[in-house]
Each structure stands twice: as C-alpha cells, then as structure tokens.
Q: What sequence folds into this?
C-alpha cells in the first residue's frame, strides 16, 4: 500500500489497481478494511496509524478517531488510545434526557445532580437548582479526568 495523507486513504501500490483506493467498507459500514498479505483483514485506520507513525500496535491498542468521524483517517485525527481513553471520546448517549451527559434532575431534591464515572466508579459532583451550574460541575470534572473536549456532543 501507499498512503494518500491528504485524504487519509490507503491506495494500491502496484498492478492493475495501482493508485486506486484499497479495501472495502465493513458490514457495519463504520470502517474500511484491507487485506494484508500474510496477516489477513485489518481495519484501514489501524494500518494507516502504523504507517504514519512507523509503529506496530498490539491487539490491545486501540486507534481513536479524535473527531469521531470513522471515515477521517488523516494522521492528525488518529491517536493510539487505551480502552478507557477511547470511551472518553463518545457522543451523547441516546438515553440522555437532560441534554447534558452526567446531569440528571432529582424530583425529590428539586435540583439538578451532576455526576461522572471515573475508573468505573460513579462520583457525585454536586447539585444545584440551576441546570447550567450542574453542567459546569460536570464539564470541570470532565477536564480534570481527561475526557475529550467534545465528549457528549451530538456530532
């Protein structure tokens, strides 16, 4: 393969297909995959990460798309991540009814409660009658605990 860094794509290096985009969209259509001779099928973003950084990945290593766009495989959008780091870069869950991740309304207290999960433990951050203050508690904790700047955004 050769890399087209401007588009973040793997291209065929030789033969009839030289210069054309390598691989196919996987069944779930989230990622492209390529066949690496002698090794089998691999997600394109993992192969590109290795080629960009001249670094091999272990099976435990994940490659995270910083902007969450799985078709954007440019060098500046891919980073090696642990499972924890990867989960800190997610969009807002569909079951988030308050509009802000980690902020819920407690009818009994008549207040908004902010909380966050850190290393699998739920941490209470505070409560406020003002929704925006509860969101501020949550955002401050996200920065402190290394959540992605766009964590919980819709896009």
A:
């Amino acid at each position: 393969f050769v890399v087209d860094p401007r588009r973040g794509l793997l291209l065929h290096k030789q033969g009839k297909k030289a210069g054309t985009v390598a691989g196919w969209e996987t069944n779930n259509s989230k990622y492209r995959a390529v066949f690496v001779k002698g090794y089998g099928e691999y997600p394109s973003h993992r192969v590109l990460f290795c080629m960009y950084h001249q670094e091999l990945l272990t099976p435990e290593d994940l490659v995270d798309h910083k902007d969450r766009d799985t078709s954007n495989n440019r060098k500046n959008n891919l980073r090696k991540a642990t499972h924890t780091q990867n989960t800190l870069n997610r969009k807002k869950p569909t079951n988030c009814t308050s509009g802000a991740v980690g902020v819920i309304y407690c009818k009994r207290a008549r207040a908004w409660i902010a909380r966050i999960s850190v290393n699998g433990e739920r941490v209470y951050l505070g409560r406020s009658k003002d929704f925006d203050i509860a969101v501020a508690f949550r955002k401050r904790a996200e920065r402190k605990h290394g959540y992605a700047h766009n964590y919980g955004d819709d896009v």
Summary: The chain has three helices and ten strands. The chain has a mean pLDDT of 91. Helices lie at 44-53, 83-87, 131-144.
